[in-house]
């Protein structure tokens, strides 16, 4: 039995950046660029998804038997996020189809959130303790950003590429510990976020440590760090004082990354300054799963937040607190990870 999963990749969606509160009547550098790319943005909504097939593994969230015991939560690397009401979303109508509109007041209860995205090192401990097999391991493949492959392999597999996003290759034997195929490894990336993990993998990990995935509302509350309607966790300027605050794409996507922030792919989970809540890399680096369902008609999809190292101002401008996207629960890719939350007991 086969189930057709829709793997969504978005191109060319851009919003007008707002200047900070003190200079709200003046255009920022980001805003001045928007006019150039506005036409592309208006034509790239429905066309930016690609249909790909995967064999169904009909075993639910627990895709294989985990050890029956769980591990007590370690709060050392978690932050208490106070409950309360905040302004969620944005009023930029160009992102209406994403569902981030309009700005609305949302009230949440206090909860704990990991300071960092789950790293390769931490995920390896989970695998060693449980023998868990991820979706990518069971399917036998995952989606790799072709620019991460060796030069002699960047243009292979033309028949296994996403229709509307040709830089994605469905590569056999690609897993969390072999992120660019079987010849790759993570020995020098143990402090980088784990990738090629599905929503179901993330839920299994969280459950083992008596945690859970954050809701979209919790995630956005935490991302904003107490700031009201700012684009990023630190404010409205992408590089305040000419310093990089996140790992995104510089140059021309997808062929040239100038690496002004120091990284081509992922970076360590504790790189760059944290936000006001002490949370690291809430935007950029890797997309992060949430528990919130996207409520699509044909498939079960989950909201992801934060954007990734592949995001560029002219492509996937979703390294903003309000931004959102979604994938099927079994989706795995080079830029998709997670962090855990925990309710107050």
What would you say this structure looks like, in words?
- A 4-stranded mixed β-sheet has the order 14-13-12-15. The protein has a 3-stranded antiparallel β-sheet with strand order 3-6-16, with helices on one face.
- The protein has 5 helices and 16 strands.
- It is of the alpha+beta class and 345 residues long.
- The protein has one domain (2-343): paralog of FGE (formylglycine-generating enzyme) (Alpha-Beta Complex), CATH 3.90.1580.10.
- It has helices spanning 29-42, 120-130, 135-139, 199-208, 216-224, and strands spanning 2-8, 49-55, 78-81, 84-88, 104-108, 111-114, 141-145, 161-162, 165-172, 251-252, 256-257, 287-293, 301-305, 325-328, 336-337, 341-343.
The major beta sheet can be summarized as:
4 strands, mixed
Tally of DSSP helical segments: 5
**At the first level of CATH, what is the class?**
Alpha Beta
Rg is: 19 Å
CATH homologous superfamily - what is it? paralog of FGE (formylglycine-generating enzyme)
Strand content: 15-25%
The low-pLDDT segments are: 1-53, 55-64
Summarize the structure.
The chain is of the alpha+beta class and 345 residues long.
